[in-house]
Amino acid sequence: MRVMLFGDSHLAALKNGLAQVAVPDGVEVSFWGTPGNRFRNISWRDGQIVPDDARTAEAFARFGGQGLTRLDPADYDAVVFVGARIRPGAVLPDLLHCLAHPTRHLTPPYMGLVLAEHFLQHTTYQMACNMARDGKTRVLMNMISLETDGKSKKPRQYQIARGASHDHVALLWDITREILAQDDMTFIAQPLDTVVDGFYTDARYGVEGEDAVHKNADYGARILAEIFAALA
The whole model's pTM is what? Predict the structure, then answer.
């Protein structure tokens, strides 16, 4: 089975974590990506993901070390979108605020509309939908992880959301899973045991320094394990 992991700078955690994971027999893993600002310069054309200019093509070719300048889904049994500029953490605090609030209530269909609208705003999600619709490969998606705990000041307006339980987060992951399934994709969720204080990632999975967004090899290994389990 040939598996392509495609993504932005969040792909680095998985690339660094690969050594910590037993790759299943018969699985061949490849990486293709570049820092997120280059994602403005890629397009879906003729059933492939193609860089719009030579500099972007060179950046993608360097990351994977295989010289690939385009992603043809037909070359792989599965393509996993990793990070890919899609950040659930942009909407989760507001949804968790209502879920954890004693008097405010949102229905799952409404939360599904909020999440689906957020996802569809991203061209990378649209590319994933196109790829899944073409049916040449299986498409999975692991979105950007929640921000690392302790890296920045916590907004007062989300105090109630920080009291949300893993059950609340699991509900949102279930809704997300249903949305992606409707678009013929498999959702690879952030593991619940990595989530702390409502909508943050446990600090032990963060990178060094003030960077609250990217994660380390240990986190990458966790996600790889989830991917391999989904492909089994």
Answer: 0.95
